[in-house]
Amino acid sequence: MNTPFLDILPPHVPLAEFQALISLLDDTDETVCRAVRQKLKSYGGGIVPCLRSIWEAGKTTEDEHILHSLVLVIQSFQQDALLELLEMVKESGDTGEDIDLEKAVILLSRFGYPETAPEIIKQQLDTIALRIHALFMKSSVHNELNLLLSINQAFFEEEAFYGAEDKEYHDPDNSYLFTLLQGKRGIPISLCAVYLLVAERTGVSLQGVGMPAHFIVYHPELDIFIDTFNKGAFLSRDDCKRFIQGAGFTYEASMLGRVSNIAILLRMIRNLVFAYTKRDNDWEVAALQEISTAIVEMMNQEDS
Q1: The pLDDT of residue 26
Q2: The pTM is what?
C-alpha cells in the first residue's frame, strides 16, 4: 500500500491502526468495508487529506474497490456538511432570523474540504481583525472613514487578498474559506464574505449587495460601496449604476439593496455548481443542486 500520507496523518490517529483499516478496504465483504468506513469517519474530517492523498497516489495502481471506499468516506463528510447547512436554514425559518453567515460559509467550506476546522478559520479572521485594530489606533483621527481605510489596508495591502484571474476564476477553491484564507484569492462574493466577517469583528456593520454579475459590500453610515474584487475600490451609486448598465442590465434601485445571508449562501452554492459543472464533477454538482433546491423550497414556504 502506498504511504504518501505519513506527514499529514492527524496526531490522534494511530498509524498502524490506520494502515490496517486501509488494507481492509479491499475486503469483498461489504459488511466489513462498511465497518471500516465508519471507523475511518470516526477520526473526524482531519483524516480527509490522508484519504485524498492515498486516492491520488493509487488511482493507477490500487484496487478500485479501495478507491471507491475512500471516495465514499470523503463524500459522507461532505454530505454531513450539507445536512448541517440545511438544518441551519430550517432553524432560521423557524425563528424568523437570518442565518449566521460565518457558520454557513464554514459549513460550505467543509463540503469542499472536510478538514476545515472552524476554530482555525475563526483564529485567522481574528488575526486580520487585530491587525486592522492596530492600524486604526495609529490613525491621527479615529472616525468611521479611517476605520474603513484601515480595513482596506490590512485586507488588500498587508494580507494581499485579490480577485482571481480569468484563467482560474471558476476554480471551486475560490469559493471555500479553507483555500481562500490560504491562497488569498477569490471571486467577488467569497471575498465579500470574508470582508464582511472581518469588518464585523472590528465593529463595522456592512451589508452584502448582490448586483447582477457582481457582488459588492455597502457601508450604510458612509454611503460607500466597496468592490472587494478590485482591491477595495470605493464606488458611488452612480458608479454601480453604470456598471450594471454596462453589463447589459436595466438598472433598478433594488439592485443595490442589502441581500440576506441566506441569499449570499445560495449564490455561493450556485457559483460552485457552475464551477463543478465546468469540471464535470457530477457528484458535487448533484449534491449542491439538491441543497440549493431544498433551501429555495424552504424560503418559498416561509413567504407563502
Answers
A1: 84
A2: 0.94
